[in-house]
Specification:
With about 350 residues, this protein is an alpha+beta fold. The chain is built from 9 helices and 12 strands. The longest helix is centred in the last third of the chain and has 37 residues. The radius of gyration is 46 Å and the shape is rod-shaped. It starts with 7 loop residues before the first strand and ends in a 47-residue tail after the last helix. About 20% of the residues are buried.
Length: about 350
């Protein structure tokens, strides 16, 4: 550890505390006899002498260096301040708060998928939580050579091996490659365990890991949206109900406009039903007329006349051969003149 000369310090403190820093090292001046240590809420102070941790102070407040700090340091309990010199030591201020960091994959990760030789390119976004857990490991791996360690530094380390963990846990938990969000909780939980194990090697704990969303390529996302739309339109009744509900929820559309939409929808359905009935009746009419029309009925009536007898035969009491004996259709009222079928609606009369 380097020796620190220059002006003697009156106060040892984290002068410009920042929430985005995990630690900050005070190492630029010697500590004199009357100096004080100021420790604020959310901070711990670790005294380091010759690269070794001498003592850790966790309670916030103001401490006198000579009377409150020196007697508790491991190898400096008998330290005596000189007349013109102070104590050369480092003080590592630790941010004890749990920090939340946003993360996102820089590039798409090709996840193996059936039928896709190159895999499915997927990106993911979310957050993770971290805090310092092991001061000795932190000093040995990082603080020994760095003056400060920020959230961005942690994020860089996390993202460096995040792709591998995402691939591992997506393959293990993600049964449906097009619906990874359904398995996001299990995937996040597995990544958190592996990530925490890796980061604790440098004294940092990963206390939480969340996947907020997965992102597919634009072409794949368009296919997913289209499939969802087709599935919805497949149930026409449900589609109409959803459209009506959406119209009712639109701002500026009063009850009159909604009622008008409903009336128009009902009218359209009634017109369709009426057209279907007309087509059915038309088909029945053509089928009946083909078998016997008015001409054939008249011919039958004529054939029944012999020797000056009327159309009802010799006795005048029965219908002529081939005729119906009915003058008007009982269904539609059309004049039939004894025909066997109504020329208008096609009803069979005998």
């Amino acid at each position: 550890m380097a020796l620190f000369g220059g002006q003697l310090a009156n106060v040892v403190e984290w002068e410009e505390f920042r929430d985005d820093l995990l630690f900050w090292k005070w190492d630029n001046r010697e500590i004199k006899r009357s100096s004080k240590l100021i420790l604020r809420q959310g901070q711990d102070a670790v005294f380091i002498y010759n690269g070794k941790v001498e003592g850790v102070f966790t309670d916030e407040g103001s401490y006198d260096i000579e009377s409150d700090i020196i007697p508790f340091l491991s190898s400096l309990k008998g330290f005596k301040f000189g007349f013109n010199s102070g104590m050369r030591a480092e003080v590592l201020f630790i941010n004890t708060k749990e920090l939340t960091v946003k993360w996102g994959t820089k590039n798409a990760i090709n996840i193996p998928a059936p039928g896709l030789p190159g895999g499915m390119p997927i990106r993911a976004f979310g957050t993770f939580n971290c805090k310092i857990s092991d001061y000795d490991a932190l000093i040995e791996k990082i603080a020994g050579v760095k003056k400060m360690f920020s959230v961005d530094d942690v994020k860089t380390r996390v993202v460096s091996f995040l792709d591998q963990l995402l691939m591992k846990w997506i393959i293990r938990e993600g049964r449906d490659m097009f619906n990874l969000s359904a398995n996001a909780y299990d995937i996040s939980k597995g990544i958190c365990i592996d990530m925490d194990m890796e980061m604790r090697k440098i004294g940092i704990a990963i206390t939480g890991f969340v996947i907020s969303s997965f992102s597919y390529p634009d072409s794949v996302q368009a296919m997913i949206n289209k499939a969802a739309s087709q599935s919805m339109v497949g149930d026409v009744g449900r589609y109409q109900q959803m459209n009506m509900a959406e119209a009712m929820g639109q701002p500026g559309r009063g009850a009159g406009a909604v009622a008008s939409d409903m009336a128009g929808l009902q009218m359209g359905m009634m017109m369709g039903q009426q057209m279907a009935r007309q087509m059915e009746n038309s088909m029945d009419s053509r089928g009946g007329a083909g078998g016997a029309g008015p001409a054939s009925g008249n011919a039958g009536a004529a054939s029944g006349t012999a020797g000056g007898r009327d159309v009802y035969g010799a006795s005048g009491t029965g219908p002529a051969s081939g005729g119906s004996g009915v003058n008007f259709c009982p269904d539609c009222g059309t004049k039939v003149d004894g025909a066997r079928f109504c020329p208008n609606c096609g009803r069979k009369l005998i």
